[in-house]
Amino acid sequence: MELDSMDMEKAKDIIVDFIGTKLGEAGIPGAVVGISGGIDSALVAYLAVEALGAENVLGIHMPENATPESEVNDAKEVAEILGIDLKVIHISDVLGSYKSIMPDISEATAPVDGNLKARIRMSVLYYYANMLGRVVMGTGNKTEILLGYFTKYGDGGVDLEPIGDLYKTEVREMSRMLGLPESILNKAPSAGLWEGQTDEEDLGVPYETIDRVLEPILAGEGHERVSARLGVPMEDIDSLLRRLRANMHKRTTPPIANLDELRED
């Protein structure tokens, strides 16, 4: 069973209009996109160019020592196809500077290091966005956002999330429709935060299964019914829902202590 079918041409047009409208309302002419070499950022770059024009989109690729050369090449290919400027900024030295001044760095796990990399990249994107008077375009999809599979104030630190209502499988479908390079369409999804890392190994469930499970559950269908109908073990469904609940804080603004009662007459 697949996700409920979506008219991808119409979805693309809505997203392109969303980008143009939001930047028009803010009086901002252009955007900065972090192009990792993966499918999500490539799709956002394509959509941003259609909405704003190639001259108003800056791509930034930020490799470090663990980044495969193929990722650099894919990012360059996307920029060349779209005709946008691309800056390749190596962040290994910046990461090393952080580590050189922080105590207990040897105790950090790969995910802790990975989150720092994501936050360094966010800082670079905002540096250029501030300098050029542009917005930072997010590259998160609906599946990742729901599960909190992103770094808070890292790749989650953005101004717009154009593909934030597309499930990962829908991202793939729209990307095929737009003719993204095969090398990007066919690679295993990875945040690239440590060597050998893949999204689906971290999540424990393939994206196709995740999306088929989340859509009916969010529409109100019972967990056990979804499990039986799709043939997905309850333990996998429970694992996904635990992620969804545990990462709720990533999808909301930080809570503020309410002092209204102190202002009452």
Summarize the structure in words.
The protein has a four-stranded parallel sheet, with helices on both faces. About 50% of the residues lie in helices and about 5% in strands. It is α/β, with parallel strands linked by helices. The mean pLDDT is about 90. Helix 2 (about 40-50) packs parallel to helix 3. The chain contains twelve helices and four strands; from the N terminus they run H-E-H-E-H-E-H-H-E-H-H-H-H-H-H-H.
Question: How are the strands ordered across the major sheet?
Answer: 3-2-1-4
- Overall mean pLDDT score? 92
Strand tally is 4
- Rg is 19 Å
Layout of helices and strands:
Elements: H1 8-26, E1 31-34, H2 39-52, E2 57-61, H3 69-82, E3 85-88, H4 92-101, H5 110-132, E4 135-137, H6 142-147, H7 168-178, H8 182-185, H9 199-203, H10 207-218, H11 223-230, H12 234-246
Parallel strand pairs: 1-2, 1-4, 2-3
Notable traits:
single chain, 265 residues, alpha/beta, four-stranded parallel sheet, 12 helices, 4 strands
Short characterization:
Helix content is about 50%, strand content about 5%. The chain is of the alpha/beta class and about 260 residues long. It starts with 7 loop residues before the first helix and ends in a 19-residue tail after the last helix.
